[in-house]
Amino acid sequence: MFVAKHRDDLIRLLLGLAIAAVTPGLAVAGDSDQANVESSERVVAGGPNDYMTVRHLRLRGSQRDIGRKLAQIAETRHGVTPQRPEPSRARGRLEFYRDAYPMHYQRALGVADHFAASVEGGQDLTLLPYNLPASINCSVVYYPPSHCASGHATLSRNYDWSTGTWADMLGSSAHKDGRRTTEDPYVIEVYPVTGYPALYICAYELLGGCFDGVNSEGLSVALLANNMDAAPRPSNAWQAGLSEVEIARYLLDTCANVGEARQALESIEFYYALVPCHYIIGDRAGNSFVWEYSADCRRRYVVDGKGGPQWVTNHPINRRAYPTAESIPESLTASTFVRFRRLHDQIHRAPIKRSLEDIKQANACVRAVGQGRAAVRTLWHAVYDCYESSLEVDFYLGEDDGNGNEKRSGYVHFRLAP
Q1: Residue 14 in this model has a pLDDT that exceeds 80
Q2: Is residue 101 in a domain?
């Protein structure tokens, strides 16, 4: 969890963080700014009387059209307006996107269209932050097709986070309106003219943020906080490069399989603004890996899944750390190690060909529990089918005061159009 000594840094970050991204020179030919975006939106879980309201947003059009529509939603619903950072940084970020990640640059042009702003005018139009997390505690398992009764590769993910407000965690100066930190998550489907269609969940940054998802080619990805053994060194500010909350979206935009994702991550420029993370990536064919980096971002590590189930919680699993449950000393009793061992035991007890219920049960055994006003809960459990490019997800909606049990949405199903 976020510690008090970083409180001022987080508050500054929430006021002005810009999230950047990069990908190797993809063309944007045909990404016209003339067509109107096709969009639809509906509430699929929760509501005003629940902990969260979950909206399903479906967008089809050019990347510029999509950026324009997301800017409209960010302003009208969440009160987002463009920040005005230090001019040289703003120019550097814009040039970086234009040259290295043209899809995101096109989305930024759409943001400029909505706010009637010049893209060269000094405002940062490359992000739409409406809330940002201080930490992410999660458990994710990837199952190759040979280990699933369906014959479909599957990614099963718990997103664990506080149910409180920023004021609960950081003091009233952080967020005076009392809104809960994950009050407005989105399940988003995008069908861009350039880039792969994708189905993903975001909760804090609309333009390029993604916590977990799958694309039309069956590539799935999820991020988790990585509680490194060395002291973290966040930038506490935006900068050029790929930030922790945009790596997943970048991979869904640009990569069709694990091989392409691994190649992209080996050379990409990246940083973390606040939270060091690691990522589990799997594809339709049964390949997977976990990608990690050192606290100073100078070293990158890849842990191959070797064709079997692969899981990760919130500690590094590269060879310099704890790659297996057996390598974790019994003296280490932090939640991340306990959950890692539980997943190991649950996965090895299950049948070789796991049913969907077996997959759900494995993540259920590591669901977050806690006490108090801002207790940590599993805010969603998402199951991605890499073959169908589909999602089943169950959301936390609050507490049942009558008997102390959680109120949940039940699993809601989504699937990318062919």
Answers
A1: no
A2: yes
